[in-house]
Amino acid sequence: MAAYKIVQITDTHLTADGDKPANHQRVDPAKKLADVFDDIHDTEVNPDLIVISGDLVHNGHPKDYRHFQKYLAKEEKRQNARIQVILGNHDRTKAFYKGFLKDDPKARYFYKVPTDIWDLYFLDTKCGDIEQGYIDADQLEWLQTSLSESSKPAVIFMHHPLAGPTLEHMHYSILQNGDELLKAIPEGKVKAIFAGHIHFAASYQVDGILNVVSDSTAYHIDCSNHHHHFANDATAYSVINLDEKGIGVEQRRLRFGRKTIKTFDIPDTGFVDHKIIQDELDRVRESLEEK
């Protein structure tokens, strides 16, 4: 397999017009993202692709996504690399479609990018506007069919990570139907899953699939105390190398503040009641039917 290099940026949480930076950030998240792009350029990473894996704009409006799209177009030229995005729980689907894609809103934003050797899948794990992640049945069927029909190895990018050995205390927040995702993946077809959302780096193996979670560009969260999580200003991104020998990931940290900017109290760290998921899915469907 020919070498293929991907930069993963995640959880940029850019501030919507008129709002204050999310979770009391002391450094503008736009400045943090600019620092990342400068580092990619100045250190000559030369990626084949850049992926921004969700929480692009924190509760943004169409004009915020329109501005973001124009900004990324300039970076594509400077980096000489295509930039792909997916949505996170803090993104607003309708605003993204109207502002970024300039298209009529749909329920989900997922797609596949084939390369000469690899198939890259970009999934939508948003569950309406709630924190937890969920992949709908139509998307799982599409994924299973596409994987089965291709002879190429594949990797998946998604916002919410799959449950794994290092995330036992994060079940309340991550992908809620990970077992269904694993059932949809033909054996041996997916080599790695890359995610974000939890704002700290983690890596683990599930069913023979490498799972790598990248730290945030906007702020890091310390979850070592399972019921009290602490955020601090931080900036990081990942460099992913795919080749015939395997998959390698380097995390690059550009900033790490020591001062706590926000505390999150987590009474229950278990998976949420499925009724919460279903109620939100019903709300989203009704909202689309009204347009």
From TrEMBL:
Q: Which domain of life is it from?
A: Bacteria
Q: Name one GO molecular function term.
A: 3',5'-cyclic-nucleotide phosphodiesterase activity
Q: Which UniProt keywords apply?
A: Hydrolase, Iron, Metal-binding
Work out whether the entry's keyword set contains Iron.
yes
> Residue ranges of the Calcineurin-like phosphoesterase domain?
5-199
Instruction: Print the organism lineage.
Output: Bacteria, Bacillati, Bacillota, Bacilli, Lactobacillales
Q: Which InterPro entries match?
A: Calcineurin-like_PHP (IPR004843), CNP_phosphodiesterase-III (IPR050884), Metallo-depent_PP-like (IPR029052)
User: Which family is this sequence assigned to?
Assistant: Belongs to the cyclic nucleotide phosphodiesterase class-III family.
Q: What class of enzyme is it?
A: hydrolase
Q: What is this protein called?
A: 3',5'-cyclic adenosine monophosphate phosphodiesterase CpdA
EC number, UniProt record: 3.1.4.17
